[in-house]
Amino acid sequence: MQDQANPIVDKAVDKAKEEVAIARRPIYHLGRIGRILLIIYTVQLALFAILAGWVYVNPITAIDVAITHEFQENLAPWLQTLMSVVSYPGNSFLLPALVVLTAGAFWIVGLRLEGLVTLILSGVSLLLNGALKIIVHRPRPTASLVDVLQQAAGNSFPSGHVMAYLAFWGLLFSFCIILFQGWRWWRVALMLISAFFVILVGPSRIYLGAHWASDVLGSYLIGGVLLGVTLWIYLRLKERGVLQTEHARRRIEKYSTLRSFSQRPMVAQDGNTPLSDYTEKPFSERVE
Q1: What phi, psi does 104 have (nearest 5°)?
Q2: Collapsing DSSP states into helix, strand and coil, what is residue 274?
Q3: How do residues 214-255 score in pLDDT, each as one tens digit?
């Protein structure tokens, strides 16, 4: 029975590898993307430093209280359920399990570096969040100021949920953009699900009374910086072929060969005139 199951599993894995390989972007696109991301996240780091200093001096502000009141104006059961569902993975073992399963899936289909980066980023995000909470030492919202719909322990700044979601869902979204191309259903589905959680986790923490708006903003900033630095390092390692499988190496060489061929000047049938020069002439000059 086990011998019969193994070919089925192997076939499914091979099919997944083939689908991923077809959708992969050429490696030469990655360097430019990395430089753009590095500039964006450098700006975010500066903004986070300013916000963290402001929050440290002013643990409770009128603007944070006012924003939470605005969020909690509509306490409809469906909205509270939606916000609770969005926050649930971060309150349970579900998110760590997804991190491990995703890393394993990347490894199986030959994306070994991506699997390792997924694990490392989530771990570093958790440690950084804990360190920042200790440093800023900001109290959480209390029932005397807002409606606390979900109790949470520990310090408030920055939000652990937001940072964890950026480290996992944000990275997954980034991989979909950087690595793959086309409108394959699984790529679109991963991007939509990832964007859903990244966008809504912040508002959900404010709505549930677990965090202040400035906690959430700070988390998006520092979580974005961590994600950006990770992607920059990842792209550098990717260019060097770290943890690259033989199948991936052959595919990259194939793309490099095709690109080199496409950049060679084409010539007309006479074997001498570049095709670009030939076709740019007026029609009357091209006809003898």
Answers
A1: -65, -40
A2: strand
A3: 999 999 999 999 998 898 888 888 888 777 766 555 555 554
- Measured from the Cβ of residue 39, the count of other Cβ atoms closer than 10 Å reads 9
The reported pTM is 0.75
Nearest of 117, 91, 139 to residue 233 by alpha carbon: 117
Query: What is the spatial distance between Cα 178 and Cα 260, in angstroms, rounded to a whole number?
Result: 22
Q: What is the DSSP letter of 267?
A: B
The torsion region of residue 139 among left (phi > 0), alpha (psi -120 to 50) and beta comes to: beta
Tens-place pLDDT, residues 127-171: 999 999 999 999 999 998 998 988 888 899 999 999 999 999 999
Length of the chain in terms of residues written: 288
Neighbouring residues of 34: CB distance < 8 A, sequence distance ≥ 6: 231, 232, 235, 236
Residue labelled with tokens 């260019």: 239
Which two three-digit tokens encode residue 191? 């991007």
H-helix segments, 58-93: 62-71, 77-91
The 3-state DSSP class for residue 199 equals: helix
Please state the three-class secondary structure of 132-177 as a single string.
HHHHHCCCCCCCCCCCCCCCCCCCCCCCHHHHHHHHHHHHHHHHHH
Kindly report the CA angle at 219 between 213 and 224, in degrees rounded to 5?
135
